[in-house]
């Protein structure tokens, strides 16, 4: 039995029947209160084997104390038509019984074994083996992208300001055109006032085209930034 013995320690005992007849077995111990044996008796068929679990109950281990615990496996050929196992052992003759004696040995793991167990219980380090699609970006490339982004944002703001300025100018020209058109209705078509109206109307057309172009530029730049 290998310690520590602060909990139940189990050892398996394998019994094999090499004969061509059924064999009855029984497991006995000198310390029945210290052990739990399952199964402690039974029948083994010819050429078969049975595993017996011997469970040692927790106790205070003293390395200076020698173990005096012993086990005995007693066997006998099973009679035909067996029905009562206890009757088999009571009626068996001494020369029909066979027994094997075993002495219990207690072992405590040494310090080196404990250290090895602790090291083995530690989880292995997990290596990050996942591959990236491309090389890691360098810090200066990240800062360069940020700088370009800020420049584009400032350029977009400047264009928007120009669009607003051109819009105000176009509104002013439109109001001026309406005023001149009213004056033209009151004058003759060949008067200097009518000629001035036509000149102002033709001059406002390029300004309107500039405003529309600026609006489209701002729209596309805004889509690119977002």
Structural class by SSE content: alpha+beta
Average of per-residue pLDDT values: 76
The CATH class label of the domain at 9-103 is Mainly Beta
Which residue ranges are poorly predicted, with pLDDT under 50 across at least 5 consecutive positions? 126-133, 137-144
- Please state the CA-atom Rg, rounded to the nearest Å: 52 Å
Report the CATH topology name of the domain at 9-103.
Immunoglobulin-like
Q: Percent of residues in beta strands?
A: 15-25%
Element pattern in H and E? EEEEEEHEHHH
Q: Output the CATH homologous superfamily of the domain at 9-103.
A: Immunoglobulins
Q: Just name the CATH architecture of the domain at 9-103.
A: Sandwich
Number of helices: 4
- How far the N terminus sits from the C terminus, by CA atoms, comes to 73 Å
Can you summarize the main beta sheet? 4 strands, antiparallel
In the sheet with the most strands, the strands line up as: 4-2-6-7
How many runs of DSSP E, i.e. beta strands? 7
Helix share bin: 40-55%
The global form is rod-shaped
Coiled coil: 149-176
Domain MSP: 1-107
Protein name: Vesicle-associated membrane protein-associated protein A
Family: Belongs to the VAMP-associated protein (VAP) (TC 9.B.17) family.
């Amino acid at each position: 039995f290998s310690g520590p013995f602060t909990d139940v320690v189990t050892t398996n005992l394998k019994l094999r029947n090499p004969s061509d007849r059924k064999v009855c077995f029984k497991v006995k111990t000198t310390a029945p209160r210290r052990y739990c044996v399952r199964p402690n008796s039974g029948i083994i068929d010819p050429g078969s084997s049975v595993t017996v679990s011997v469970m040692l109950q927790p106790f205070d281990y003293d390395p200076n104390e020698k173990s005096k615990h012993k086990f005995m496996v007693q066997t006998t050929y099973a009679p035909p038509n067996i029905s009562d196992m206890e009757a088999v052992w009571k009626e068996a003759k001494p020369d029909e019984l066979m027994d094997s004696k075993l002495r219990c040995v207690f072992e405590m793991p040494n310090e080196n074994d404990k250290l090895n167990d602790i090291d083995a219980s530690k989880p292995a380090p997990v290596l990050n083996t996942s591959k990236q699609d491309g090389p890691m970006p360098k810090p200066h490339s990240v800062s360069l992208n940020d700088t370009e982004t800020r420049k584009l944002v400032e350029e977009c703001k400047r264009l928007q300001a120009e669009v607003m300025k051109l819009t105000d100018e176009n509104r002013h020209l439109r109001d001026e055109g309406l005023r001149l058109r009213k004056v033209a209705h009151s004058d003759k078509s060949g008067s200097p006032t009518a000629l001035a109206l036509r000149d102002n109307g033709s001059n406002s057309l390029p300004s309107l085209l500039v405003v529309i172009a600026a609006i489209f530029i701002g729209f596309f730049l805004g889509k690119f930034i977002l």
